Amino acid sequence: MKPVPHVNGFGRRRGNETLKFRPAFSRKSQSLLTSSPTKKQRRERRRRYVKALAGELAQRLDKNPILIQTDSAHLVAQYEAARPVSPKWRRLRSKMLARFAKTFPGKLSTLTGAALEDWLSSLTRLDGRLVCVRTRKNYFLVISALLEFARTRGNLPRDNDLLSSIQFPKNLRPAPVQLYTADEMAALLSKAESTKAGRKLVPLIVCDGFLGVRHGEINEEGKTDVVHWENFDWARGKLKITQWVSKTHSARVIDLPANVIAWLRPYKRPSGVICSLKNSWCALCRLRKRSGIAGKRRNALRKTFITYKMDLLQNADAVAHQAGTSPGIIRQNYDNPDARTSEEAQKYFALHPLREEELPLFAWKNTERGINAASSSGGTERGCGEAQPQQFGPERGCGKAQPHNPEYL
What we know:
By secondary structure, the protein is mostly helical. It is 44% helix and 2% strand. The protein folds into four domains: 65 residues, no CATH class; 82 residues; 168 residues, hpI Integrase, Chain A; 50 residues, no CATH class. The longest helix is centred in the N-terminal third of the chain and has 25 residues.
C-alpha cells in the first residue's frame, strides 16, 4: 500500500516527506470502524447514570437521614397552615397542639414513645380530674397526624414509630345517654320564650329535640351551610336537609308534626338562618340552668329524640333515616330496653304551645310608640275588650299589651 502524505488542517502538504502512514479510507468508512456514540445513546447513558445515582443517594439517606431540625412550635404552625379544617375543629385542634408544644418544646427527633404515652395518660381537665379515654384518643389522633406531617417534611425519619407502643381499646364504651323528660322540655321552652336571647333558641330547640336535626346542622361556629328557613316546605309539611348541610353529606327529608309547626309558625321568616347566635352551645347551657334543669346534658336534645322515637316506632331503619345516621349506631348507642318509657315518650312528643296568639312576645310592639296588638292584628281577641300580651301557660289576664320587661320575666 502506498503511503499517503499527511495533509495539515489548511489543505497544504508539508513538503515531500511523509509524516505518518494512514490508510486511504473515506470519512464514512472510518466512522464504521471507530464508531462514536450517537446523541440518543448519550442521552440514554445519562438517564441510567442519574437513576443509579438517585438510588444510591436514597439508600444512603435511609441509613443516615438528614433531618430538618425544627422545634415543635414552628412545626405546629406549619401543620395548621398546611392542613385547613372547619373553624370549630381548628379551634379544638389548636388547643390540643398548643398543649403538646408547651410540654415538648424541643426537637421532635428527641421525643420518645414512653414520654408521649406518659403525657397522654396524665392529661387532666380544668378541675384537675383525668380526662376520659375518648379525649385521650382524640389527642392521640391529632398528634399522629402531626407526626405524619413531620415525616413527609423531613423532620422525622420515615421509619419513625413513636406511637406504635400506645394502644387504645378498639370499642370504647359509649357515654351514658342523658335525656330530657317531658316536663324538663316544657320548662326549657317556657323559659326560652320569656327572654330575649332565649327566643332566638326556640327554633333550634324545636328542630333538635322534636326532629332530630343535629346541632351542628342548625348552628355551627364558622359554618355557612346550615338549615335556613328556605328549607321548610310549610304547604307540604316537610323539612329538607341538603347534602351540603348534612354531616354525612346525604340529603334527607323530614316530616313536620303538628306540634313542631305550632312551635315554629310564630318564628318563621321568608329566608335566613333559623338560629343566628354566634355561640348557641353556651347560650343553651345558660338557658338550661335558668330553667332549673340540673345535671349535664351533652347533645341531649338529639339523644332524647332518637331514644323516644326508637321506643315508639321500634324501627331502627326509620329512625336512622330521619336522624341522618346508620341503624348500627342507633342499635349500639340508643337501643336500651331498660331505659324505655313509652308513656314519657308519648308525653314528650305531644308537647304543644299553650299560647293562643301566633306571634311570640318579641313581636308585640311597645305601647310607648302608640302601637299595640289590637292595631297590628286588626281588632281585639278572646273577647277581653282589648288585646292581651301572650304568655306561656294557662294563666292569662285581661288588660292592655305591656312592653317586654326582661327583669320581671
